[in-house]
Amino acid sequence: MFKKILIANRGEIACRVIKTARKMGIATVAVFSDADRDAVHVELADEAVHIGPSPAAQSYLLPEKIIAACKETGAEAVHPGYGFQSERASFCEALEKEGIVFIGPKPKAIRAMGDKIESKKFASQAKVSTVPGWLGVIENADHAERIAGEIGYPVMLKASAGGGGKGMRIAWSETEVRDGFERARSEAKSSFGDDRVFIEKFVVDPRHIEIQVLADAHGNAIYLGERECSIQRRNQKVVEEAPSPFLDAKTRKAMGEQAVALAKAVDYQSAGTVEFIVDKDKNFYFLEMNTRLQVEHPVTELVTGVDLVEQMIRIAAGEKLGIRQSEVKLNGWAVESRLYAEDPFRNFLPSIGRLTRYRPPEEGTFGDVVIRNDTGVAEGSEISMFYDPMVAKLCTWAPNRLAAIDAMSEALDSFVVDGIEHNIPFLAALMQHPRWREGRLSTGFIAEEYPQGFSPVEPDGEEKAVFAAIATAIELLRRDRLDRLGGRLAPHSGHLKRDWVVKIGTDYLLAGIVDGMVSIPTEIDLSIDGGKPLTVASGWRPGDAIWHGTVGGQGIAAQVRPVLNGLRIAWRGMSVTAQAMLPRTAELERLMPEKLPPDTSKMLLCPMPGLVVSIAVAEGQEVKAGETLAVVEAMKMENVLRAERDLIVAKLNAKPGDSLAVDAVIMEFA
């Protein structure tokens, strides 16, 4: 077994590998760029080596820097994590030349499966079900349009060297093929240095289901069940689960056996994933093989009890698999939510900045529930524009699917992140979505359920009552605390007042105290708008970020943040400003004028921090609704900004190459 390994990666996956290596008694070496000098993975490792400037192309993507770090520290092997060097055969070969072990598959398998065009040809020869498509080189947009017409719409355009949803477009018409081809090729070139694009038939209402495989150097290979990865946005996975709510035992076995056959055919030696598209009739088609550890591997670990990182290390060290296929059992259900630094209310555009507050839910086993949080950041960490915007992977396990979803819902409500925009509101709302809870999924789920983008979830009557009850209980404690301050001329509240008004949005709800007293822990009976009394019980103390308790017997985990004259309360993807006040104060508050936001209807604002790739219009130009105005790149994804209506461009305030902050004015309209 290795005595020391180097992790050629950063963030949460570097931390994840370090934890398993430490458990195995293996010393670890971290590498870091300028931007990651104070990163968590650097602190967690036994040693750390600086490898260059912040851009990945000048640090993490340079094999010579990794090899030099190995020689400097005496690392015997390198774990690549995912992304960066993980699927580069040339990197694997460079390590082998220096006598350093690559903790992953051999170059032959990486080359055979790493190129999407070649992998589909190989899979077809190995009798694996494949999607109809064109696997040759596509010369230009005209060629792409001709091929798409022969295959039949809709079609999917994909970067051959792609991954993570980059360089991928769905086209339903000739126009979309032409535009999609250029965008996919441009993204592929900037992200992977390879602009080759291929086309295949797009399966309508597909599910994205993948099989985890393990194979050693002695001819042994097994599959560890499947992961359902159909909840995707822009072809980027957002929520994964294991097992799939759709597969039956027969289909699972067939998919698993094909995945193992493919792994054996390429002499695969490590952990790998064979991805399939599955239609509504459970027909499945090979999509690609990821010759690395997957981002979503924790859900497989939670339902099988197998540490995939440990298995990768043992296989790389030459050991035989210690698990037989008959010993693989799927136990319970696991769900993973990817926490991204992105604004769900701005069409999920990237957000960067410093984490001024970062308080994940407590990890561990709580009764029948397991909570796990794979992360590479801490309070004070900076989310950089140079790397992937993923902040953490929150995972829950429970004996059944709905219990795992409910555990995830509460864990998300308990996850406090300040300083950046993030997708927790969306993830929390998703956990309550009927279609998700029923398991009626497809890769088009987000686009179908949120066609206009994600908007703040509006609470109904019962939910408003919950918010009002929490706000009233907190206000009672706040006033009681003020009364206890020394040197006050008179009590702020005097005896316990029974009648309160809670303003939520534009609604004013009456909150009457039926029974109880102000104390910690709190237990008060409240009637909201004359309804049946609700018992509000909580051990919350002023200053706590999470209000844990019950309202009417319902368990609640809500985030509370003080705002001017009230609270911001977030729960289950809903976020409201609540003001609990005495009736006379509410009467006067109703008379206050409403402050209107500034009018930006005649401006194109930059929706996220990014780089202006191109400006498609000129001053004085008439533009029709839907036409492209500008293209802005953020975190290697190109975002096309289009006109929402017919207009005339009055002034251009930005030019290609400019770096813009969020809400910077790109252009003004007449």
Automatic annotation (TrEMBL):
Organism from which the protein derives? Mesorhizobium album
Domain of life according to the entry:
Bacteria
| Positions of the Biotin carboxylation domain | 1-451
Chemical reaction(s) catalysed: propanoyl-CoA + hydrogencarbonate + ATP = (S)-methylmalonyl-CoA + ADP + phosphate + H(+)
Q: Tell me the SMART domains matching this sequence.
A: Biotin_carb_C
Q: Which residues are in the ATP-grasp domain? A: 120-317
Classification via CDD domains: biotinyl_domain
> Taking every annotated instance into account, which residue ranges of this chain make up the domain Lipoyl-binding?
591-670
EC number(s)? Answer: 6.4.1.3
So, what pathway does this thing act in? Metabolic intermediate metabolism; propanoyl-CoA degradation; succinyl-CoA from propanoyl-CoA: step 1/3
What keywords would UniProt list here? ATP-binding, Biotin, Ligase, Lipid degradation, Lipid metabolism, Magnesium, Manganese, Metal-binding, Nucleotide-binding
Q: What is this protein called?
A: propionyl-CoA carboxylase
Top enzyme category: ligase
Essential cofactor(s): biotin
Q: Where is the signal peptide?
A: none
Q: Does the keyword Acetylation apply?
A: no
Q: Which SUPFAM superfamilies match?
A: Glutathione synthetase ATP-binding domain-like, PreATP-grasp domain, Rudiment single hybrid motif, Single hybrid motif
Which residue ranges run through the membrane?
none
